[in-house]
Design a protein that fits this description.
By secondary structure, this protein is an alpha/beta fold. It is built from 13 helices and 12 strands. The protein has helices spanning 5-12, 30-45, 89-109, 135-140, 146-151, 160-167, 191-195, 233-246, 288-309, 328-340, 355-359, 386-404, 409-412, and strands spanning 49-52, 58-62, 70-75, 116-121, 178-186, 199-205, 207-216, 256-266, 276-285, 312-321, 345-350, 365-370. Strands 1-2-4-3-5-12-6-11 form an 8-stranded mixed beta sheet. Strands 8-9-7-10 form a 4-stranded antiparallel beta sheet. Strand 1 and strand 2 form a beta hairpin. Helix 3 packs across helix 12. It binds (2S)-amino(hydroxy)ethanoic acid and manganese (II) ion (MN) (2 copies).
Amino acid sequence: MSRDFLADFARMSTFGATAGGGVDRQAATDADGQVRAWFGELLAAHGFTVEQDAVGNLFGRYAFTEGAPYVLFGSHLDSQPLAGKYDGAYGVLAAAHAAIRVIEAHRAAGTAPAYNIAVVDWFNEEGCRFKPSMMGSGVVTGKLPLETALATTDPRGVTVAEALDRLGARGDGLLPEIAAYGEIHIEQGPSMQEAGVTIGAVAETWCAFKYEVVVHGEQGHTGSMRMADRRDALLGAAHVITAVNDLIGHFPEETLHTTVSELYLEPNSPVTIAREVRMLIDLRAESTDELERAYALLRERIAEIEERTRTRVEFVSDSVWRSAPFTEAGVRLVEQAAADLGLTHARVKTLAGHDATNVKDLVPTVLVFIPSIDGISHNEREFSTDADMLAGLDVFTRVVAGLADGALDEAADGAGS
Ligand code: HGY
Ligand code: MN
Ligand code: MN
């Protein structure tokens, strides 16, 4: 008897629930620990062997055939602050439910698929408490050294290692070798709802250039210091923020998305001119050419800002992912599953990053979308309908069955392309 997905989704959404109807389950917080514990018990109750790896990825393995390789499905349970309850969590629960349905079908038929099945909750996909985003899958796919991830600190100076150990969330498990990966996620944009489609077969990802910058100034008295002598880091930062937004004027409408989304100010005192502002600049576009051009334009503007405000802007670190197609055979598998189920569908691009963005560079990867109402995400008002969640689960069940039977084997020699 398959589990009641909507009942599980409602229960899952109680962990870190906010008054505004969303969740706040930032990586390795108590709320993240609680939902991980609940999810691990759900997998264990259905015969999965549940483990955690060295960077807190939580996964369950179901072996039909000892020694056979695995296919992997999942997403992330962590959330942005005061955010929606669908982003990531829907995909983790749908992966578990789809895998359980496929396992039960094989058990009932006395058959076994070519591959064993694993389900994962990637640690810290959101990259808010600990930057960068997609951290757990970044370590597993070799894009981020484990030691770097574990030493990353949150704004209070707590390291990832300390935060994971406080939850007992760091283990010696090792994700098994995988032949393919599948993820289902909400679109986090308006295009599918506007087009009236229920299922998105993600064919490509936009690129992202994210920069952590520090604007350096000098403290002074807000009243007595002469204007001509001031090196006001907050004034410099204000000009950088508007310069980041001005970039879109150099590109066709909606082809470049930019914002400054995080800001820390020192000393943040009402009668003291700011000494330092630390900010996160986020640039997104379809191609790296556009982002390279946007970055060059920004550096020109920043040179003028430094001159005008007598501040210094330091680029401290960056986090980048480039556009690339998803496996064509996987896109077709999603289209076929949706068509067989009589569901409207379309090929879409993802403008947001996902763990699939990392994993697709390692093995053939499938990413499926369901609509986000009004495209709202990273917001307590994020919403997807029950009907769309269940339709997505039906499609994803066929994706799990297909990948477990080797549907992407031919694509494998394309090394994930
Ligand atoms: O950065 C991203 O796009 C992802 O949502 N973490
Ligand atoms: Mn997500
Ligand atoms: Mn997100």
